[in-house]
Amino acid sequence: MLLLMPVTHLVAQAFHAPTAQIAFVAAVVGAHFLPFARAFHALVFWWIGGSMVALGLGGALLAALGIPVAGPAGAAVAGAAMLVIVAVQAFSTTRPGHDSGH
Hints:
The protein is mainly alpha-helical. It contains five helices and no strands. About 70% of the residues lie in helices and about 0% in strands. The mean pLDDT is about 90.
């Protein structure tokens, strides 16, 4: 994940959209959750990773299309989505042994 951070800068520069970088970073952070879903047999990681990737890439795309605020907004919404998903997961696990992430 850390090795891809400089790549996000290069991609944002290639699109002539410097504000897209933060949204690309959110997508990279989200992508790192995806392997956890399989490793830990927990669907919640698919929700976290998938939503962050989609929202991050969406913000980056809009920034590249000429809406500079979309980059930081996409990253913020991706982070908020992660927070909401984690909170829902935490509050929905009410019984011992119950994993609502499956």
